[in-house]
Amino acid sequence: MIDFKGVHYPKSVILPAVFFYVRYGVSYRDLEEILAERGVSVDRATLNRWVVKFAPLIADRARARKRPTAKSWRVDETHIKVKGRWTYLYRAVDRDGQTLDFMLSNRRNLTATRRFFKRAIASNSLPDRVVIDKSGANLAGLQAVNVILKFTGTGHTVEVRQVKYLNNILEQDHRFIKRITRTMMGFKAFHSAAATIVGIETAHMIRKGQIPANGASAFQTFAKLAG
């Protein structure tokens, strides 16, 4: 259960505000006005603190509860602007479009790629096949994974395919994330962007039915993750 102690507003106010922000991509200014219309006076800085603090905690619980995914992956990056500069959002989905993992990085290089594959494998187990674009960093990252697998003697390596059209399902999935972030009027700090994006990805997983809902609405499922 996530601890809400020390916060001056009840969970019944905080969770809808966080969910509304990460699911529908309004600006903090708009969210402040929406809450004010409902008799809740909260400034933009407080709303930002709520998202940065609680979105990652809820995302961790979502990762632990998401449904099993397929062993055929699609991996690519998209761009997110932070403080006026482009950063890289690494994302992976399975062949059915179900979210596997995601990671915001300042750089697109071998170090970042290896870090992403390491965390994706840790949380989803080893894939049989990974489809990537023509990125040399992504290819080198997967080759490094296969070298480790050969030395550990598991007898299993990952098939790597560089076929652009097979990644169309991931390109379509990128668009949802980009549509949400585009209306947020930019990120001012990397840590804030990373925390917000994990919230967006969590809401997206709920939307895709990856978190068992048992008939609950999207918001109810989000709230249940908070305990």
What does this structure look like?
With 227 residues, the chain is of the alpha/beta class. The chain folds into two domains: 11-67 and 189-225, no CATH class; 72-173, Ribonuclease H-like superfamily/Ribonuclease H (Nucleotidyltransferase, domain 5, 2-Layer Sandwich), CATH 3.30.420. The chain has helices spanning 11-24, 28-37, 44-65, 110-124, 136-152, 168-182, 190-207, 218-225; strands spanning 72-82, 85-94, 99-105, 129-131, 159-161. The protein has a five-stranded mixed β-sheet with strand order 3-2-1-4-5, sandwiched between helices. A hairpin with a 4-residue loop joins strand 2 (85-94) and strand 3. Helix 1 (11-24) packs across helix 7 and helix 6 crosses helix 7. The longest helix has 22 residues, at 44-65. The relative contact order is 0.18. Involved in the transposition of the insertion sequence.
Key features of this structure:
five-stranded mixed β-sheet; globular; 52% helix; 227 residues; alpha/beta; 2 domains; Nucleotidyltransferase, domain 5
List the SSEs and their pairings.
Blueprint: H1 11-24, H2 28-37, H3 44-65, E1 72-82, E2 85-94, E3 99-105, H4 110-124, E4 129-131, H5 136-152, E5 159-161, H6 168-182, H7 190-207, H8 218-225
Parallel strand pairs: 1-4, 4-5
Antiparallel strand pairs: 1-2, 2-3
Helix pairs in contact: 1-3, 1-7, 2-3, 3-7, 4-5, 6-7
